[in-house]
């Protein structure tokens, strides 16, 4: 498993947790997924 994939999974889990605290998990998952892909893209640019 690549480091970039772990970052995406972690962002999704964190987003789901925040979404559950705010009352709806699914939008939090989507926001976390988007943030995870942005972070993954920034890691690729550095290489």
Structure overview:
The chain crosses the membrane at residues 6-39. Keywords: Membrane, Transmembrane, Transmembrane helix. This protein is mainly α. The chain has one domain (3-45). The chain has 2 helices and no strands. It has helices at 3-22, 25-46. The two termini are 18 Å apart.
Keywords:
single chain; 47 residues; elongated; membrane; transmembrane
The number of helical runs is 2
Class of secondary structure makeup: mainly alpha
The overall number of domains is: 1
End-to-end Cα distance, whole Å, is: 18 Å
How much is the radius of gyration in Å?
11 Å
Strand content: under 5%
Largest sheet: none
Order of helices and strands: HH
Instruction: Compute the average pLDDT.
Output: 88
List unreliable stretches of 5+ residues.
none
What's a quick, concise take on this entry?
This protein is mainly alpha-helical and 47 residues long.
């Amino acid at each position: 498993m690549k480091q970039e994939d772990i970052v995406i999974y972690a962002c999704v889990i964190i987003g789901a947790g925040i979404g559950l605290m705010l009352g709806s998990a699914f939008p939090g998952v989507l926001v976390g997924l988007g943030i995870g892909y942005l972070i993954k893209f920034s890691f690729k640019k550095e290489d």
